[in-house]
Amino acid sequence: MQTSKMDIGSKLRELRLENGLTQEELANRLELSKGYISQLEHNLASPSMNTLFSILEVLGTDISDFFSNQIEEQVVFKKSDFFEKENAELKHNVSWIVPNALKYEMEPILIELLPNGKSFMDDPHAGEEFGYVLEGEVTLVVNKKKHIVKSGETFYYTANKEHYLMNHTNKKAKVLWISTPPMF
Q1: pTM exceeds 0.85
Q2: Would you say 111 and 168 are in contact if contact means Cβ atoms under 8 Å apart?
Q3: Is the alpha carbon torsion for 100, 102, 105, 106 positive or negative?
Q4: Which residues of the chain register pLDDT less than 50?
Q5: How far apart are CA 41 and CA 39, in angstroms?
Q6: Residue 15, phi then psi, degrees to nearest 5
Q7: Predicted local confidence at residue 116, as pLDDT
Q8: For residue 169, which of 140, 125, 147, 138 has the smallest C-alpha distance?
Q9: Is residue 71 within 8 Å of residue 79, measured between CB atoms?
Q10: Bridge partner residues of 131 (DSSP)
């Protein structure tokens, strides 16, 4: 059975650097030697519990945060992370480009509208929506009022009226569409 050992020294070094301290400055605040801090950071020495608590206090954290195995939040998403769904009847493809966006404040999608395609009709809801036409031309319908939006143009509206997109052209249209709160 293989056990994984936590690299305490590297975590201490990372915290020290995040706080803008040299080894000497940290050592002085703790009445320790610079050499001892170096040994800790290289995992050549192990601090007592009291010393570790003191170091973490100076570095602005506590023992539970220091030892938590929290997974770092993903900030970059690749095409392989996207979830895509095609709707042949409405002639559109939707790509959810930020996985699990429902837990965030906004939800971005890419929607491709084939010629004569349209999005689902959204019922009125709280929030706002923004779109940027990346390719082609779409007709934005908000409360039955139609707005032509061409490539390079944007749209923005409060979502308290029914709304959807249509493509009345013979070319594909592609739109980056962002809803807050997440609704897609």
Answers
A1: no
A2: no
A3: positive
A4: 1-4
A5: 5
A6: -65, -40
A7: 96
A8: 138
A9: no
A10: 155, 177
